[in-house]
Design goal:
single chain; 136 residues; mainly alpha; 2 strands; 6% strand
Length: 136
Amino acid sequence: MAFGDHCGEMSRWITAQCCENMVEMVDNPVDNLCCGAGGGAWAGPYAKERIDFGKWKADQIKATGAEMVVAACHNCRDQIKKSLTKEFDLGIETKYVWELVSDSLVIKPWTKTEITKARKKRNAQFVRDGVDLEEL
């Protein structure tokens, strides 16, 4: 990938791999709205303007019915998580893409019953395929 290439599609693909039901905010990502925190607005003394502008993004989020928003941008994540969710009662969880990936890698441990079942299946496959572990 060359410097300046748009990476949005890559983030969307990663998100889709980690989510059971990914919903886009708009049909065409080009029509997506800014969250209102960019250009120094999040770090600067522009809370009223940032929140007023962010209402457009809050409305987009509400329209999806989503329980979670995934943001690749630090300003977007902070604006949505720390401001818009509270200001507009969004009732959502907000994560970075890397947090979603990390959470997706956590696997619930198997129960003893699941382990026993898996071992029986493995042993049956070894018998079927003529595998003798003692010979290996």
